[in-house]
Structures are given as C-alpha cells and as structure tokens.
Amino acid sequence: MIEILGPVDVARGRRTGRLVADILQTLRHRATVGTNLLELDRWAAELIATAGARSCYLDYAPSFGRGPFGYHVCTAVNDAVLHGRPHDATLANGDLLTLDLAVSLDGVAADSAVSFLVGDARPPASVAMIETTERALRAGIAAARPGARVGDLSHAIGTVLREAGYPINTEFGGHGIGSTMHQDPHVANSGRPGRGYRLRPGLLLALEPWVMADTDELVADADGWTLRSATGCRTAHSEHTIAITEEGAEILTMPTAG
Asked: Cα angle at 96 between 91 and 100, to 5 degrees?
C-alpha cells in the first residue's frame, strides 16, 4: 500500500517526527559508557508514554522476525546494524551504537535512526562510515521532489556509498510510511535513476542508508531479530522521515532545538 496524506495528516507527521527526533536526541545524550541497553529501552518507553504516543516496534511482528519485537527502540552495537533488540549489555568506550526509533502519534508514524560513537574514543574508520551514511542520506533527500522516481533516490544514495568503497545490501532499505511504519514503496540503497514509483506531494518516506565495512551479507542472531554483518565488521545507519511537498522534500525528523 502507498498512502498519499492530506495537509492535516502531514501536519500530524511533523509533530510525530519532532517527537521521534527529540527522543533520539535525549537517548543519545544518555548513552554513555556503562549504560545498559535495557535502560535505553526503558527511557524510550517513558518518553513515548509521556507524549501520549506509542512505539511502532513494541508489537511489530513481520514475516522475517520471530514473534513481536517486544521493545520500544532498536539498539544495534558495533557489528549489529538493523533491528538490534535491546538486551542486558552495557556500552563501552568506543562502541558504535545505532538507535532506530519509530513512533506513532495521532495516527501518523515517523521513523529515524542515528549512529554515533560512545565515550571519547574516535576510531577513524568508524567516524568515516557514520559520516558516509549521513552524506548518503542528504543525497537521497536532495533527489526527492515531486515527479522524481524512487530509483533517483536510490541512485543518489548508492552513488555516495559506492564511491566511499562500501558494499551495498539492497534487501533492507527505505520505505513508505504513514498510518503504519512500513509501507510501499521500497527505497533500496542502490538503484537505477528514472525507474520506479513517481513521487507525489503528500507521500512520506523513511530513507535509511546503512552499510557494513567490508561485506553486504547479513546474519541473524538467535533472537530472530538482530541483524549483524557476516564478517563481524562494524556498521552504521542513518535515517530520516521526509514528506514530499510541492517544493521538494521536508525533513520531519528534526529535533525541536534544530
């Protein structure tokens, strides 16, 4: 299903997007050396409940998972990149943490992810990988406008990732979003320009470039959810929800403070 939202629902999406961004910003500040991943999930639950919203992940049970996800935010550390299920583990100096949060408020969902280094260690390869996903995200957003094709966004994202030397997995990528978290169209992180669905005002998309340092192959944890690099290499993931407008693309998942 592809939803095209009216102005009222797009405005609701703005509120949801700001909430997602604000919660991610709070969690990022709290994710310090010694923080437990289950603490991050508990804080996310409290922040979501206080806002009168709900996590899209709590009861999320797609065909590729193993039962409901059961937590409020995805926490992926180092070689984990997607659907990182919170568990009893503490963060160490230099860990590369990805927080991925999707929330629904007033009937409209928004989804965002951020990767960052914990503590004061700054391994250059990890910094470069994070920065590459952020640049790829900006390129995808810049390509998004009425009349553009999904393939134009995929091509823009993939060009940045490939030129930086990273293998690209196209099984998981960006997606439509609206009254539910995951909708069509699928926005792969590599593709051919001029192909695919034509973008229209009122379409919401979650764009999410992610990479693994030296492989495009994923393996799943025994929890049935957490996806890791097959080689044990580090990973990074950046995501924003955008709305297609008459003028171009509006980023919805920006924090209140900017």
From this structure: 90
Structural contact between residues 251 and 141, judged by C-beta atoms closer than 8 angstroms: yes
Given a contact cutoff of 8 angstroms between Cβ atoms, the answer to whether 215 and 204 are in contact is no
Question: Which DSSP string corresponds to 78-93?
Answer: TTEEES----S-B--T
Are 197 and 154 in contact by the 8 Å Cβ rule? The answer is: no
The C-alpha torsion from 249 through 255 and 257 to 258, rounded to 10°, is: -30
Confirm if 137 and 161 have CB atoms less than 8 A apart: no
- Contact by Cβ (8 Å): 57, 69: yes
**pTM of the full structure:** 0.96
- Length of the chain (residues): 258
Residue 74 binned pLDDT confidence (cut-offs 50, 70, 90): very high
> What would the two tokens of residue 78 be?
């180092």
Question: Which amino acid makes up residue 100?
Answer: D
Q: What is the DSSP letter of 134?
A: H
User: How does residue 1 score in pLDDT terms, banded at 50, 70 and 90?
Assistant: confident
pLDDT tens digits, 85-130: 999 999 999 999 999 999 999 999 999 999 999 999 999 999 999 9
